[in-house]
Design brief:
By secondary structure, the protein is an alpha/beta fold. The protein is built from 10 helices and 8 strands. The chain folds into 2 domains: 139 residues, 3-Layer(aba) Sandwich (Rossmann fold); 76 residues, DNA polymerase, domain 1 (Orthogonal Bundle), CATH 1.10.150. The chain is globular. The two termini are 29 Å apart.
């Protein structure tokens, strides 16, 4: 059956951690950490995040940030206070604000073709405001923010909430997200198809899941499921 709607994770799928901004914010605390060091520490920190989600954590932002800062060389004595400060700042100075290459064009193309779209994200309760600030919100019928709803991926309930607002049956929705533990497992439990997105994505033995490492591969996968989003392999301008 062709797909009829798409949901997207936000962090590391539509917008990614702005490490230059994070480095500047750390400098406000007297911490000299280069953006390049944060970039280098990211893969190990993300693996830690995925392990935490696999163990049942629903939005381990603090654990992710602590692992990232430690990996980038922030002294252990400064970690707890720095992570707490950054968390408090998230409401107004969200660090996830750099566009993931090609994804803005893909979302715009889907919306222009009349495909119902939503965001399903484990976030801090301010995601709608952030996406409005960054110019994304106009394309989405609904924004399911775990910090607002009180239910987080991989719980199928957050996907069901978005699906009800899209008005499309679960098996006709494709969810795109970078976390296997939260996005892929959660979407499949809710009856959705899934695109595992990002550099870590690898093929799974599940016909309802496609691995896509970038926007062009995501565009191709959505087109293969019958969605009007441009020619397969289109880099998304």
């Amino acid at each position: 059956m062709p797909a009829g709607a798409v949901t997207f994770d936000a962090g590391q799928t539509l917008v990614e951690l702005d490490t230059a901004m994070l480095a500047a914010r750390l400098a406000e605390r007297g911490l000299d950490v280069a953006a390049a060091a944060l970039d280098a520490a990211w893969p190990a920190a993300w693996r830690h995040h995925e392990a935490e989600v696999g163990r049942g954590a629903r939005h381990p932002w603090r654990q992710l940030m602590a692992a990232l800062l430690a990996g980038a060389g922030v002294p252990a004595a400064a970690l707890d206070a720095t992570v707490a400060w950054l968390w408090d700042q998230q409401a107004t100075r969200n660090l996830w604000r750099r566009d993931v290459p090609g994804m803005r064009a893909l979302v715009a193309d889907l919306a222009a073709a009349g495909v119902p779209l939503a965001v399903v994200s484990n976030s801090e309760g301010h995601l709608a405001a952030l996406l409005a600030e960054l110019g994304w919100a106009r394309w989405f019928v609904a924004i399911a923010d775990s910090g607002v709803l009180g239910v987080a991926k991989p719980d199928p309930g957050i996907f069901a909430w978005a699906g009800a607002r899209l008005g499309v049956a679960a098996d006709a929705i494709v969810h795109v997200g970078d976390s296997r533990a939260a996005d892929v497992v959660g979407a499949r439990a809710a009856g959705l198809r899934a695109i595992w997105f990002g550099a870590d994505a690898t093929p799974l033995d599940d016909p309802g899941v496609v691995a896509a490492r970038d926007a062009a591969a995501t565009r191709a996968a959505l087109a293969a499921w019958g969605l009007p989003c441009g020619a397969p392999g289109d880099p998304g301008r």
